[in-house]
Write a structure and sequence with these properties.
mainly alpha; 5 helices; 109 residues; globular
């Protein structure tokens, strides 16, 4: 859905995935699904919702020690913050994302 630009549908699929991950008790899957929902909200232009979902995800990813997931989420937060005109927050988020990606040897993402 994302590759086709069908973000509304993608949100629905991500929400379904979140529901299934919750039912299964799969916390890593839950964190990925919540971040996906946040990203798709950003793609739809609802940047406040995107920030809310992404911030919610960071706590769970920190609890799980999911550094790569946190990098992806900080990147999403940077994008949404930038679109909201929160320049300092966007820069801080992008810097955090880059630092985390670098720990995985992936500074190009």
């Amino acid at each position: 859905m994302e590759r086709q630009g069908r973000y509304r549908e993608a949100v629905g699929h991500a929400q379904q995935a979140l529901d299934l991950y919750r039912a299964a008790g799969n916390k890593p899957g839950q964190a990925r699904a919540v971040n996906a929902i946040g990203w798709f909200q950003a793609m739809l232009g609802d940047y406040e919702q995107a920030v809310a979902f992404c911030e919610q995800t960071l706590d769970l990813q920190h609890e799980l020690s999911d550094g790569f997931g946190r990098a992806e989420t900080w990147d999403s937060l940077g994008y949404a913050s930038q679109r909201l005109g929160r320049t300092a927050a966007a820069i801080a988020a992008y810097r955090t994302a880059v630092e985390l990606y670098c720990t995985f040897g992936d500074a190009t993402t």
